[in-house]
Automatic annotation (TrEMBL):
Organism phylogeny: Bacteria, Bacillati, Bacillota, Bacilli, Bacillales
Protein name per the record: Tetratricopeptide repeat protein
A Pfam cross-reference name: TPR_8
Xref: InterPro entries: Sel1-like, TPR-like_helical_dom_sf, TPR_2, TPR_rpt, Ycf3
Highest taxon of source: Bacteria
Length: 217
């Protein structure tokens, strides 16, 4: 097992110190290999040293401007810091450099939503779901985006698929309740609000939605 593989193994185990050692050795052995810099950056990011992590991603890109994973990792870092414009640029660059993974499409999609660009987010979220049909959170965000763009029937399909994958997704239940309310199906809406509250008793929006329906009776 080479040093990069060993470091990844340590990362998966949550052993950040040993992972950092392995990646540091990988950089010493092959200082022109961008992969070790990306991996080391990911360790630094995981332990909260974002500034240093970014320097490692930048070094990887300096060594190989086509290092798509470096752009993706930098995008995640910017997203977590709520620097959404910079995150968008990084995810777009990762895509341009060939990273057509469900995760990259998903992150680009939700970044665009944060920038109030739901119309542009939709195709990326759709592609994310196509590439990984078992991702409940991608289904949820895709369904939410469809609802915000007034594609209510399509939204219901995706939110129900999200619940098939994760029956404890309270927010999917709540948003299904809203969608059914919009479709003038108060019984189904109430059922979904109840389910959301069963999963998460302090779900304020579901509680409010349920009261609204009860007041309309």
């Amino acid at each position: 097992m080479d040093k990069n593989q060993l470091g990844v193994k340590y990362m998966q185990e949550g052993n950040w110190e040993e992972a950092a050692k392995a990646f540091n050795e990988a950089i010493s052995d092959s200082p022109q290999d961008p992969v070790a810099y990306i991996n080391f950056g990911n360790v630094l990011s995981a332990v909260g040293d974002d500034e240093k992590a970014l320097k490692f991603y930048e070094k990887a890109i300096e060594l190989d401007e086509n290092a798509a994973a470096a752009y993706y990792s930098a995008g995640n870092l910017y997203f977590n810091k709520e620097h959404f414009e910079q995150a968008k640029k990084m995810f777009e660059m990762a895509l341009k450099k060939g990273l057509e993974s469900s995760d990259n499409f998903f992150m680009l999609g939700i970044t665009l939503i944060q920038l109030d660009q739901g119309k542009f987010a939709l195709p990326y979220l759709q592609r994310s779901v196509e590439l990984n049909e078992e991702d409940a959170e991608a289904r949820f965000q895709y369904g939410l985006c469809l609802a915000q763009l007034q594609f209510i029937d399509e939204s219901i399909v995706q939110l129900e698929k999200c619940l098939d994958l994760d029956s404890q997704h309270a927010d999917a239940c709540y948003n299904l309740g809203v969608a059914y309310g919009f479709k003038e199906n108060p019984e189904k809406a109430a059922e979904m609000f109840d389910k959301a509250l069963e999963i998460q008793p302090d779900h304020l929006l579901a509680g409010y939605g349920k009261k609204l329906i009860e007041n309309e009776k």
